[in-house]
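Example for reference:
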Amino acid sequence: MTGYFPEGSPLCAQQDCAEEVARIMEVRAMGPKPLAYVRTYGCQQNVADGEKIKGLLEQMGFGFTDTEEDADLILFNTCAVREHAEDRVFGNVGALKNVKRRHPSVLVAVCGCMMEQEHAAERIRKSFPFVNLVFGTHVIHRLPEMLLETLTGGRRVFVRGEDGDGRRVVEGLPIHRDGSFKAWLSVMYGCDNFCSYCVVPYVRGRERSREPEAVQEEFESLVRAGYRDITLLGQNVNSYGKTLANPVSFAELLRRLDRVEGDYRIRFMTSHPKDATKELLDTMAAGRHIAPHLHLPFQSGNDRVLREMNRRYTRERYLALVDYAKKTVPGLSLTSDVIVGFPGETYEEFRDTVSLVEEVGFTSLFTFIYSPRVGTRAASLPDPVPHEEKVRWFQELTQAQERAAAVRCAAAVGSTERVLVESRNVRNGRLEGRTGGNVIVELDGPDAWIGQFREVRITQARNWILRGVPKEDA
């Protein structure tokens, strides 16, 4: 087993814990080696955390399984953004009671954003006594220590809240990447925006940026390893660098990464409109590897609702930014997040959201009905509109976006797109890939193309999915 913390680091003790966990699990395992079942819910940042968790488990001698029944360790990495996600987690954790009955030695762990909420962690404590380990988002690097305590301490282990210096960024953790040509790369953690509906600042803490040298080192290693699509992650990447001793803007970070030689594509998310700058858009336009795709959540098209959300921009400011982006970045694809039925929102205010969607012409939207989050300001606001009415608004918005997407996709017919082929659709047998604008393209071809870029002439548009033929066959 190789060490993963720098020699002399105060975290070196985790390596000793990892080695001891490996020795214990070698004896406890149901099979030739211990197996872990890791399930991640939620956003891309959660997925990136899950890959670090799997990297640490790998260092402790674990292999991985896709079934709970074969696992020596079952770990759920949770999301707290919406109530539906929480309900799913509690339901799935509850179902593990039967697995635990059949295999009493299996370890059950629940971690992630939900576990940074007192009410959720307390429900796990009281209602699910078979859960052995609970930990939050700030202490992933201590997983070897926490597992060792779980195995040897004879009691359940709960570790939540910030670990010492809340601004610290732990570097050098091992990563078990789930993909071979698409990768997530976190450039910062936490959020300082405190939108009134959002629990993220409470469960992930305040903004902390990684040093640009550390980001670039990881990025270069991904390019050398052959990754073709690398997404830079942060709750608000436009705030990157503000917490550093020597501040570096996100646009400057992009320019540094874009200079790395190789055949790849850079994406990033999420951008907050209040911090998105012309410098960022100019950098996208000038980049050699930066995808012409901007995920820019607007959440509502009405100024009063935006104020209540504490978004700190106006409809006019958002549209002006979009206008500059479209004029500056060739072939720009815009996607966004929208909340329907924010507390106190009227139908007339909701219609402002629909009109913004029709005016901008987004490639796609991630649309959600408002979900109250414990501890946020919006959760205490009057909310007189019935859920059934919000569902009707949601359907109206979805229909408006489908019309806009159909028009945009139809305009792509006859063009040639550079597509990263990602998989084969098991239903229709065609290959599927994505353009730089993050639009799905179906084509015919061999499995050998998966993980490669292909030039594809678009021949047909089906709402938000395109079909095409390889350029050499056109």
